[in-house]
Amino acid sequence: MNDYHVLSLEAPGGPATDHGVALRAEDVPWVSKQLWAPDAATKNGNYYLYFPARDKEGIFRIGVAVSDSPSGPFKPEPEPIKGSYSIDPASFVDDDGSAYLYFGGIWGGQLQCWRADGTFDPSQSGPHEPSGAGVPALLPRVARLRDDMLEFDSPPQELLLLDESTGKPLAADDHDRRFFEAAWMHKYQGKYYFSYSTGDTHYLVYATGDSPLGPFTYQGRILEPVLGWTTHHSIAEFKGKWYLFYHDCSLSGGVDHLRSVKMREIFYDAEGRIKLTPE
């Protein structure tokens, strides 16, 4: 994408108001091309837009832009967040005011290119990931944000995703459950819910935990595959009800890069499991 627009709703289902361009790639000094999926948070009376883009060397970094309005325009910081990499940032501000940024995406998102020593291996670009019996899957990342929301307060760390039966990390070959991209965090009745896309198998799934830093235990699927390659989403409370926001390609007849926003109400059962229909 070359720019971002902000849409707003007064009520579920619309109509939606397009507030125009919130941020352009050409206005961010460090960006070479390709603004990808962003997220936003509010704190300290300001609004913070977190966005991934390629730097001048073609490596994905995460930037932040600030506005005093949720509709923008947003003014970008001149450099990406120090220590950031990969794609799909998702911001989360907890009840105590502490803030976190979740991120990561394999294949095109370059997460698999980063070695343990912090160096970037371009030979792993493209559809590469670990595989083999007993090999754990790559994990999303999380970093605590400083109070000003502009930098990491601590280095990014892996967010552990565990099998609900064995307690072991999800396996790399388990493409129906392993993390691919589209991190999201929300909190419901004191429990933390980390949801994400499985990418090439097109499921939207979730795991739960007792801390925003994990570990998280896999719980199941939220959404079956939609028309389109992947399912990027968010989950938020709006006017006393919980909603799943996501996209598909139904309006474009399956043209993968022409995606439309959808929303639907979600529900929780007595054990806190996410349901698409009330019980």
From TrEMBL:
Keywords of this entry: Glycosidase, Hydrolase
Signal peptide (residue range): none
Site annotation Important for catalytic activity, responsible for pKa modulation of the active site Glu and correct orientation of both the proton donor and substrate: residues: 88
A Pfam family assignment: Glyco_hydro_43
InterPro entries noted in UniProt: Glyco_hydro_43 (IPR006710), Glyco_hydro_beta-prop_sf (IPR023296), Glycosyl_Hydrlase_43_Enz (IPR052176)
GO biological process terms on file: carbohydrate metabolic process
Family matches, as CDD domains: GH43_CoXyl43_like
Gene3D superfamilies registered for this protein in UniProt: Glycosyl hydrolase domain, family 43
GO molecular function: hydrolase activity, hydrolyzing O-glycosyl compounds
UniProt record similarity statement: Belongs to the glycosyl hydrolase 43 family.
Name of the protein in its database record: Glycoside hydrolase family 43
Lineage summary: Eukaryota, Fungi, Dikarya, Ascomycota, Pezizomycotina
